[in-house]
Amino acid sequence: MSKQKYMSLALALLAPWVGLAEGEYQVKGSARVRLEARDNGDFSDATKDYTDSTGSRFRLNFEFTPREDLKVFFQPQFTKVWGQQELNLTSATPTASASDSSGALNDTGLDVHQAYVQYSVADGLDFTLGRSELIYGDELVIGAVGWSNVGRAFDLAMASWTCDHGKFDFFTANLVDANISTSGSGEKEFSGIYFTAKTSGALTAADLYVLQLDDATIAPHSSVTSYGGRAKASHEGADFRIEVTAQNSQNNGSQFDAEAGYMVLQTSKVRVAAEYFQASADYNQLFPTAHKWLGIADLFGRRNIKGYRAGVSGSPYGNVTLKLDYHVFQRTDVNAQAYALNGTSGYGAIGDDSAIANEWDLVANYKVNDQLNLEAGYATVSPGDYLKANLKTDSASFYYFQVSTQF
Q: What is the CATH number of the domain that holds 50?
């Protein structure tokens, strides 16, 4: 008997006790294991910084619907970097120490990635309370970072209203609560209104949003309001997308991203694409899935950066998909530094050269069957004049191999 059948049998036996009947729950899940390695991530051979690791992520998705207007979603998650020591509380004192968790008498803990209750007040009006991912648009501004072994989720309250023109999401998320056990300086909160319009014809997506990030845990308090819009269109093999974000904060940051593509060969899905992007030196990148857009090496954040990407992708061999991208990264403002993935730490501000780096990415995916995927990727990043001026003169490299399944 399969694991899913065992789980279904267990839930069926529990149904009389928890008020569930047959057909009022679903069990799904995903699993993956990824080996990845990185060399010269600091663009310098002077310090040996080669790293490699194998990480795994297993998720189970439990969806309960005891009533038509009520849904409970629960997603436990097991993540592990193989062989990594982990902190464990000692029995004698409430302190933590690093202990072996592989080949030892210490297990890795189980976390909860998502857990929320959704209640439908009326037709088209839902309320969600709990912990949930937020995925909007192309994840340039808000994403779940599916590449990460942990991923991103928010503790939030959200109201969703679906009308004739589209869907409105009104949400507020508590990021840091400094007043739980003692009186703190304040909280860090993220709120927003995100509108997804109904589209037809060549227009395939149209979004508008207003987002507010307030941080009262620091002095002086920080507040950033972001206004943005996004659109996508496709027609007879050609496609186009654009997203613009403007911020009303102390320094008025902004970002712009546009891409055009064309399906050259329909049979093998060969598509060529060109993208241009730009973000100001004071732009707050909020909560993006950067891995999707700024190179798979994950060395640069969406702040004080501009450039372009040229790429080609296709499925020349049935279940095999190949994707090749070339990125050019430059500084928007040569008087400010370039920033790393987190958008805060940088690479230095010496020199007035704009060229940051060039990156080649190659990703191959093989769909073994409907549930099993194999994927491999390689990236090489060559420093430009700006990095060289800051004594970062050697090329960086990154590669990975991943096995994943969904059920």
A: 2.40.160.100
